[in-house]
Specification:
The complex is a heterodimer of chains A (646) and B (347). Chain A is α/β, with parallel strands linked by helices. In chain A, 35% of the residues lie in helices and 21% in strands. A seven-stranded mixed beta sheet of chain A has the order 11-10-12-13-15-14-21, with helices on both faces. A six-stranded mixed beta sheet of chain A has the order 3-4-2-5-6-7, with helices on both faces. The longest helix of chain A has 21 residues. The N terminus and C terminus of chain A are likely disordered. In chain B, the strands form two sheets. In chain B, strands 2-1-3-4-8-7-10-9 form an eight-stranded mixed beta sheet. A two-stranded antiparallel sheet of chain B has the order 5-6. In chain B, strand 5 and strand 6 form a beta hairpin. Chain B starts with 10 loop residues before the first helix and ends with a helix. The N terminus of chain B is likely disordered. Chain B has twelve helices and ten strands. Classes of the chains: A alpha/beta (646), B alpha/beta (347).
Chain lengths: 646, 347
């Protein structure tokens, strides 16, 4: 994408819609588009997530690329909420800087989100609740009495429940979407509930679809169709689902957790799914119990998972230290949110990287992986399980709120090649087994395995000799500490060096980790369109880092990490701090931000090239005052170190 | 296929959820199912030699590091006796513990086992017990580990009723860290380090654990045989808690002289025999929760024996049932088919 309006194809017809007030023309002229950003803004109980998810599912089913973005208020019930869907005929990497189409259910939705609508974009508003300023000629106004028509269509006691589905019908008409497929999706979604609910939903959809939108709009849009080349069907799900199913594919059959936003839905999925596979997921009494149960499962021979968000991971930290010491494999998911403490429970932040790498006590090496996209949530789980088993170590998977809740369509994984058989090896062993053999990477023998010389291993958190017996020997502590560290150095050797996207050499190399993958890649595209020599790498293996990054760094004038965390006391984001420590390279800088929202493409470019790119508008979905402007986007420059250290 | 590992799991252990571990049984000799070998495993398949009788010698490991005269020795000796009597398969014995003097227990038993962190051994044992119904999970700890830092886990472990046998060696004091007060230290218990002032001994813990898990109290010196007698329920179902009252060697003399057991006849709980005699009226019904509470509230040192027993189904049994009904609904589909089917619904 670029800075011009997102609706790019066609004969400039987009512009025709621009500043054209409501017209009387009844015939909708078709217009081909490649990409559209639709933002639904309402309150959290209006079901806009449901309507948005239908659009995302439909896009996936129709071979389109799709990405969603949502904000939920951290209240118990109610509060402003948005759901944004970006549907594209090409590659969709980010949820979009601007909306082409804004649906405003309330006056506050209109006021808070109008700034997000691009010039020439369409404002579809509920004329029963919203009074827009029609004098502002930048937008196309489409007023539909959504509430009244929904009540009229459904009657009864439902009041305006169902207006989300009514709007879905409207959108289906305007974007010429496949209404049969949508109806099928609606029926599937509500299947299992009372038939009257399905009927009501379909009535609401039909009412929206039949609304004579031609009275207020001059054309409808049609997504160009580019058949996918992979030949694989697309599946549509959110990041937490992808992570949960990735774990199942990876042969993880046991786990334990405790509810916390935004991790909970992984726990719920696994609790529901694992019994089908003969496994168990336990909701424990607390986070400490959860990680301990998971370690019990792992010790018994079944690699297990636990997870949480940052505060819960803090509670698990002692047990994770034990897992490092005892060398027990374990997968720990951290679905990051804004912190510290309860922080911003429903917002996104990448501020738990250092917690993942260092957060325990003593020298407790572990592995940290970060998922780049919803699709990657699936594959990173498989990689985490592979590493945990091979190196008998705790492995963190870092995801975040934005990945957890956003829906993407991706190629169905080739499960027949990926599924792992999770049975422990209980074959009787000859004697002489040493659980902590200094000559090799620890592979524990699960309990229940007969050892023929009758000498059984005991594993534990006390520093131990090769047989697992406690020792206070200085030499052994040094040797065992090195053993635990060196196995991860071994792992670093086999991690592939990431490919450079964009320019292979030049001025700026962006380095990202986690959910910033999409915006960073879009920023590289946009930057190159504007003549910048810019490339990017994205790290899936954050700790240990792959070997050979220094060769990539050498090809660029500067290296800038892009992170959703604070620049800290010394002026660098958390990954930048690690990279600077590792490579002693002053040209490593960072662009950081802490507004609890995902990066917009322009914010990245603004941060990397101060003053060069158009200023970011001070837009924020439900907190208009919490500036998301350029002052929040910090480039950690050398002077900030001077200021910081003083 | 079901992922529940059940290598050489005897029908009795699976079906009868209430096996009396104290009764002598012939050890099952079936070798580990060949299907349990991981594909691609490089461990050589070896023929299993016949089993010898499991002796105390075979299950003895490191020399215990406890202070001379510590009550933990008696529990260790009793544990060896239980194992010898039961003749469990050696590799199926798992000993676990948290942190504390008594929690060094697994180091002194030669068998699969783990020494975990302070207070969290109950959930660790729960994970092992749930995933591996073929194992005998023995858990050891002290009053600090079980009643203080791990109090929450004890409560919920008992509520979930997960199969394991938990021996709590209660010496009313933190021994490993040198005599700080524990939750069971009596009121008036003072020593040079932090001044202790706590609930009276025996008052706190049984109440915490009032529900569900079986409860048995023994005294390390005189009544430890209770634990291995025929009446003791060292069973395979649910969580059984055995609290061993112990006297730490250096326990302050003042406390000892004031309210200790010295010179006093320890009283045993007389359990109902259900023989319709007038004496039986006065005996304790171990299924009566309220009566168990009353007994547990008696002043120190209280009474010894079985306080409470319940037949509430274990979490192991409930999870197993859930897996079976869920698996039935899937029509025995393979893992691959199951996940493919799920993805089909997301297209």
């Amino acid at each position: 994408m670029n800075e011009t309006p997102v609706v790019t194809k066609g004969d400039g017809a987009t512009a025709a819609a621009t500043s054209t007030p409501v017209s009387e023309r009844a015939d909708l002229r078709p217009e081909n588009i490649r990409d559209a950003v639709i933002r639904l803004a309402g309150n959290s109980q209006d079901g806009i997530q449901t309507a948005g998810a239908f659009l995302a599912r439909l896009a996936g089913r129709s071979d389109h690329d799709v990405m969603t973005y949502m904000t939920i208020p951290a209240t118990i019930s109610g509060g402003p909420s948005i759901f944004q869907v970006r549907i594209g005929s090409g590659e969709v990497l980010s949820a979009g800087d601007e909306a082409d189409f804004l649906v405003a259910f309330y006056q506050h939705s209109y006021q808070d989100h109008l700034d997000f609508l691009r010039e020439g974009g369409v404002l579809l508003y509920d004329s029963d609740n919203v009074e827009p300023n029609l004098d502002d000629k930048r937008f196309v106004y489409v007023g539909v009495p959504i509430t009244g028509l929904t009540v009229e269509a459904l009657g009864g006691t439902a009041k305006d429940k169902g207006k989300n589905i009514f709007v879905l019908g409207l959108i289906a008409k305007i974007f010429n979407l496949d209404d049969d497929k949508l109806k099928k999706l609606i029926s599937e979604k509500f299947a299992g509930k009372d038939q009257s609910i399905v009927n009501t939903a379909l009535m609401a959809f039909q009412a929206g679809y039949a609304y004579p939108v031609g009275n207020v709009l001059t054309k409808h849009y049609r997504f160009e169709h580019f058949p996918k080349t992979s030949g694989r069907a697309q599946i549509t799900m959110d990041g937490n689902q992808a992570l949960a199913y990735g774990l199942i594919a990876a042969g993880v059959r046991y786990g334990a957790g405790y509810p916390i936003t935004p991790w909970s839905s992984i726990m719920e999925t696994l609790r529901r799914e694992l019994p089908k596979y003969g496994g168990i997921f336990v909701q424990a009494e607390d986070e400490l119990g959860a990680v301990s149960l998971a370690l019990g499962f792992s010790y018994s021979g079944y690699l297990a998972v636990t997870g949480s968000a940052g505060p819960g991971i803090s509670l698990k930290a002692e047990a994770i230290g034990w897992a490092s010491m005892a060398e027990i494999p374990l997968i720990v998911c951290n679905i990051q949110r804004g912190g510290p403490s309860t922080g911003l429970p429903t917002n996104v932040e990448q501020s738990d990287l250092h917690q993942a790498i260092f957060g325990s006590h003593g020298d407790s090496p572990r592995v940290v992986l970060a998922a780049a996209s919803v699709e990657d949530c699936f594959y990173i789980a498989i990689e985490a399980a592979r590493i945990a088993r091979k190196y008998s170590t705790p492995v963190f998977i870092l995801s975040d709120t934005s990945l957890a809740t956003r829906i993407e369509a991706f190629d169905e994984p080739d499960l027949s090649k990926l599924m792992v058989d999770p049975k422990p090896d209980l074959t009787p062993r000859e004697g002489g087994f040493k659980p902590y053999d200094l000559e090799r990477i620890t592979q524990h023998i699960p309990p229940g395995t007969r050892i023929l010389d009758g000498k059984y291993p005991l594993i534990g958190g006390l520093e131990h000799d090769e047989m697992g017996h406690p020792t206070g020997s200085p030499k052994l502590h040094m040797a065992m500490t090195a053993k635990r560290r060196n196995k991860l150095r071994k792992l670093a050797e086999e991690i592939p060096v990431p490919e450079v996207f964009g320019d292979q050499e030049g001025d700026t190399l962006l380095v990202g980790w986690g959910s910033t993958y999409g915006p960073i890649h879009d920023a590289v595209k946009m930057g190159r369109e504007h003549g910048e020599k810019i490339g990017a790498i994205h790290l899936r293996h954050v700790h240990p880092l792959p070997n050979g990054l220094e060769k990539i760094f050498a090809n660029f004038e500067r290296v800038v990490t892009v992170e959703m965390n604070d620049q800290g006391l010394y002026g660098f984001g958390q990954l930048a701090t690690i990279l600077r420590a590792r490579y002693c390279e002053p040209k490593i800088q960072s662009v950081t931000k802490t507004d609890g929202l995902t990066f917009r493409v322009k914010e990245i470019l603004q941060g990397v090239f101060p003053g060069k790119f158009v200023s970011v508008r001070g837009y924020s979905p439900n907190r208009p005052v919490s500036g998301n402007g350029e002052q929040d986007v910090d480039v950690a420059r050398a002077e900030s170190i001077e200021q910081g250290v003083g | 296929m079901s992922m529940l590992p059940a290598p050489s799991l005897s029908n009795k252990e699976l079906v009868n959820d209430d096996v009396d571990l104290m009764s002598e049984t012939t050890p099952t000799t079936s070798p580990v199912a060949a299907g349990n070998r991981q594909s691609g495993s490089d461990s050589p398949a070896i023929a299993e030699p016949p089993r010898e009788k499991l002796t105390k010698k075979a299950i003895t490991a490191d020399l215990p590091t406890w202070c001379p005269g510590c009550g933990d020795f008696a529990v260790l000796a009793a544990f060896y006796k239980v194992i010898e009597k039961r003749q469990l398969e050696h590799e199926k014995i798992v000993t676990l513990a948290g942190i504390g003097c008594s929690s060094r227990f697994p180091y002194f038993v030669n068998g699969h086992g783990a020494h975990y962190i302070h207070g969290r051994a109950v959930p660790l044992a729960s994970g092992i017990s749930l995933a591996r119904p073929d194992l005998h999970v023995f858990l050891f700890g002290g009053d600090g580990d079980g009643f203080s830092i791990g109090g929450n886990h004890l409560d919920h472990g008992a509520r979930k009723n997960i199969n394991m046998t938990y021996f709590i060696m209660d010496n009313f004091v933190y021994g490993l860290t040198k005599k700080q007060t524990s939750p069971t230290s009596p009121i008036g218990f003072k020593q040079d380090r932090p001044h202790g002032r706590n609930r009276s001994a025996g008052e706190s813990d049984e109440k915490i654990d009032r529900r569900r898990g079986d409860l048995h109290r023994a005294h390390s010196r005189r009544k430890v045989n209770h634990m291995i007698s025929d009446r003791a329920r060292v069973r395979s179902s649910g969580l059984q808690r055995h609290r061993m009252l112990e006297r730490m060697r250096d326990f302050p003399r003042r406390v000892r002289s004031g309210q200790s057991e010295e010179g006093r006849q320890l009283r045993s709980i007389q359990e109902k025999k259900w023989d319709n005699t007038p004496e039986d009226e006065l005996r304790h019904d171990v299924t009566d929760e309220l009566a168990a509470h009353k007994l547990a509230s008696l002043p120190f040192p209280g009474v010894f024996g079985v306080f409470y027993e319940t037949d509430r189904p274990s979490k192991n049994a409930l999870e197993k049932k859930w897996i079976e009904t869920t698996r039935e609904k899937t029509g025995g589909a393979s893992d691959l088919e199951l996940l493919k089917k799920t993805f089909d619904r997301m297209k």
